[in-house]
Amino acid sequence: MAACAAAFAVTELVPPVSEADVARAFGEAIRFYQQHPYLELPEEFATIVFEDVRERDREPLREVLKELGRQARERGTDIAAEQRRLEELCGKALELRRNHPLRRYGLRPARRSATAFVTHMFLHVGWLHLLGNMLILYFVGPFVEDRLGRPLFTALYLGAGLVAAAAHVATHPGSDVPLVGASGAIAGVMGAFMVRFTRMRVRFFYLFGLWARGTFWAPAWTMLGLWLGQQLFMASLTGAGSTDGVAYWAHVGGFAAGAAAAFAIKRFGIEERYVEPGIRRRIERTVHANPELELALAAEEAGRLDEAWDRLRRLAIRRPDDRDAALALWRLACARDRVPEAVPAMLRAIDRASREGETDVVREQWMELVRYIPEPPADPGLLLRVARALAEGGEGAAARAAIESALQAAEKGLTAPMAVKAARLSATLDPALAERAARLALRLPGLQPGDVDEVRRLLERLARERGVAPAR
Fold first, then answer.
1. What is the pLDDT of residue 114?
2. What pTM was computed for the model?
């Protein structure tokens, strides 16, 4: 994302040659030609200027221009000098066009270069193009990167971008229009996301007009599969001669490459053989960087469990944000049947993971916790963050239980906005629980007017689904 932003700053904000420079040069040459239409345009310039003229109209146009040239010669016009001036103006315009960053570093199938297969992935045309691509990468990229590790993720991203470029070149071999944008590589990350997080539930936003808007939850495979189908459908309609500015076949190629790579990585155990050992080495480096924790683990390994317990407990008190210490304390507590004493440290570890967006870690540690403590004494905010992580991972029953605990914690700080959040989360998990959360939100103080309208719409929808009239 940083590389794309830097490339955008160089090529769009302070470009060596801007679109305005090219437009001015072309405009000057075209105006001179309009004043002297009997002159001969350079072939490359004519191809660009008349690319929108239908093929059958080009020859009659040339004949008209030749006739105008004959009339000018009969009047004694210095055509040679005018021709030199036109060629000078056209040459300047063409040179600026060739030096424009998007044409120099974008991928032009008809004039492709090896470096353009890579550089095109980091170029974008305008803020909307850049921000749209980066938003999608922000949504799906961290999950895939966490699962594969940085080196393998980088290889997948660049590899999918290369396959996307190859697909575009194969379907547009004669095009001189540069392909730019990260969407082919990002489509590869989307394909990998669909393979590795098939069952994850994703929250989507929809907007129709100005009034019909809202959110809904759906499995990753459903929505990403529909997106791929839409790209295939549009690619089949536009064909190789697409001129709508969207590289559909590049998206399809990148998505297929990312999905295939993720499937192969999973099928051949590459994560277990290469990625996880690297993670373990990193954890070991973290442990060695924490001498207090290292001493506690050494005592545990030597069988001095009381010493290890005392060290870990003191470390957890002194450094409440030390997740490694909290998890080591929890593991020892489970082995020594002292689980209740380690619950606060475990909850702090889960809270930190939830705030850092590590949903896989949250699910794993929460499910471990509730094996021993079915109703952990967590605050409502943490319970709702845990419920979201559980719902996204397909743990519907555990998510409902967490929401239920949050709603029972009104005396522990449950606020109206939290109750609204609980209603949203449970709308697709348990309609009865969603209705209960919505009614609780209406009773709690501090509910914003916009949230009031949302809660009432939710109650009306739930009532319609049950086939009863909504309560007023």
1. 92
2. 0.59
